Amino acid sequence: MNGFLKWFGRIIGIGIVINSAFFIPALFAPKFLQVTLGLPLDGNPLVWMGNAGMLLLSLSLFYAPAAFAPDRFPIYTWLTVFSRFIAVGFWISVVRTPGLTQTFIPFLIMDSSLGIILGILLNLGLPEEYKINLENIGKAFGAIGNWLKGIWESTTVKVVAGLLVVVIGVFGYGFWQNLVKAEPIPNYQDPAKHFKYGVIGLSQPDRLPYWIFRVLPELFADKLPEPGQLSSLGLIFEENVEEVPQAVPVGFGYRQIGFPSIEANCALCHTSTYRPTPESKPIVLLGAPAHELDLQAFQRFLYDCASDPRFTTGNILGAIEKIHPMSFFESLSYRFLIIPIAKQGLLQQKIDYSWQYKRPIQGAGRVDTFNPTKINVYHLGDDGTIGTTDLPQIWDQKKRENMYLHWDGNNNKLIERNYAAAMAVGATPKSVFPDSFERVTDYLLTLNSAKYPFEIDTEKADKGKVIFDADCASCHAFSGKDVGQVIPIEEIGTDRHRLDSFTQGLVDKFHEVGFEPWTKLDAYRKTEGYSNTPIDGIWARGPYLHNGSVPTLWDLLQPEELRPDIFYRGNNIIDTEKVGFVSDNPDFDEPNFKFDTNIEGNDNKGHLYGVDLPENDKWALIEYLKTL
Predict the structure, then answer these.
(1) DSSP classification of residue 358
(2) Residue 411 contacts by C-beta under 8 Å, 6 or more apart in sequence?
(3) Burial (CB count within 10 angstroms: exposed 0-12, middle 13-18, buried 19+), residue 9
(4) Which of 15, 374, 448, 598 is most buried, judging by how many CB atoms fall within 10 Å of its CB?
(5) C-alpha distances in angstroms, 608 versus 72, 266, 308, 527, 612?
(6) What does the pLDDT look like over 570-582, one tens digit per residue?
(7) What phi, psi does 596 have (nearest 5°)?
(8) What is the pTM of this model?
């Protein structure tokens, strides 16, 4: 061998040694390797990391002959070089994934550098007939062409090829229709309907096939609080909505990419209902906190369905065909692709969100806001913090422009808050429909807060306004001098878990990655307290405090020791006296969650403003708050 080929072999050998530094721990110490690479420990590392180790070991064995005798099988040796460039393509896709860029850039640099160096050495060292140049490339294509021509001259081959073209065409068209063909997304002219049912554009893993969604409540009725009723989890179903398919709840968009699917939108977490009495029909409030929605229970219902032995292709397909007869190709697509992929996707989400099982149950109207972003999007690891908070209202957004919001006042850019919320439900820069999403955000700029729908004692309210202006307006009126400002946790005294869950590490990730071309997420900041928020439509925003630990405004004006330790949240009957929702009855037919303030993250202490007012003044203040 000449010098070029000797150096080629030496570098291949070095590459094998480097590979061993990864495949040995991948096979024998997978958890150690995952931690070293900064990857989450969810799932089964012995399977996936071990599999990666076996593949890397196999690749090293594949490289070995080229290291010892690169000139013996030149074409084989060239394949070892081309494999490097295939790896380069893989690493490019990996480093574009948020949270993985810094970890895997060295892998990209190493494979691309080795590919270039090895290619140059091989081209210099091999005989002329095996070098890559225009003449040899032309000869290779000529040889391939002659080989194909010889095959094609056979009549049998022509007949078989023709039949294959027909079969592939028929099956290809059938699967294209049922798996790939995208229909235009629904365009609802009414802005309110678009807010409730419009598609903002989630990525494929965050969409659920519509027909699977339809049959799950019946097949797994035993997994719901009220058998067969998703409404028992707080989902809102309107009757006979034009242009919206049957049984699509408020907060979900319907779209068709080959097969129909549904995906969450902003209204899921920001629409509620209320009733004056148990006998009344629910009245929908757009932009209000979804105080009835038990989002975690809905997720776990889906995960539990996918984990159940009854979730088989045959059972799901049989249930679908009872309400939706299928064509041959549609049935084939569901049997071999749609149902298995949906099941695997739900099981993977169950693994991805397994960290939630280490926290207290969230319950109706609440969600962990930023831990999913930390753990599942940016892979920062599970720090054990509890980020559970009440879902907020999103009306009167125009008045909130440039105001520091989120419960801890961590961002003052409306566009960033909007896109971060879309990201939380599964939208990405590639998947989102900007025009549709912009229609939603424009609607919220002009959506006014819900007005109190019952009679108000104006005389008492006038007295309450004087108290509000003196004691509350500076923090809670839009014109207040301290509205939007952060009150240190030591002063406000409320549960600090949500504050601690939003870390400086997450802020750094937001600033580092962003979500271009949407926007650079550079306005996020770490604070040390909770933000003063405007309280427009406060009558419909109970329970109160950032973690929803106080059921009514009256309770919020009581000393800490007089606030209820246990109450029930999730029903929608208005408490017109204390203001909030009726919370002392565990037997309502609406979703009910027993809220225990003694559980970590549920503390109801703090915010002692107004607790020392005379009782009559408290009632007057509450009467005025109904007018906001």
Answers:
(1) G
(2) 404, 405, 417, 420, 523, 524, 525
(3) buried
(4) 374
(5) 84, 33, 48, 21, 8
(6) 999 999 999 999 9
(7) -110, 115
(8) 0.79
